[in-house]
Design goal:
alpha+beta, 94 residues
Length: 94
């Protein structure tokens, strides 16, 4: 179960790869709007991978609603990006 701060939809989500625990923090990217701040639809992800260490990247949905990432490191798979998108849909879009 993730730790969720619904103020802005930020949450921490653990994951396992080959029985080793890693963790991600997922933060909505925000911009300054007339009445405060608003989300852009992109999410900043910080990942501590149990085998490769730390990385950060951005995930977003394409025009078809598929979760994509254009700047993830090589050890982050497309399936992992989709998993992050599923977590965002479950916990971050409140």
């Amino acid at each position: 179960m993730p730790i969720i701060d619904n103020t802005y939809g930020t949450f921490i989500e653990p994951f396992f790869i080959d029985d080793e625990k890693g963790i991600t923090t997922i933060h909505p990217e925000m911009y300054r709007a007339k009445n405060g701040i608003s989300p852009t639809g992109r999410y900043q992800v910080y990942c501590i991978h149990p085998q490769f260490g730390s990385s950060n990247f951005v995930v977003e949905q394409d025009e078809k609603g598929i979760w994509i990432c254009k700047n993830h490191p090589a050890f982050i798979s497309v399936n992992f990006v989709v998993w992050i998108g599923e977590r965002i849909e479950a916990y971050g879009n409140k």
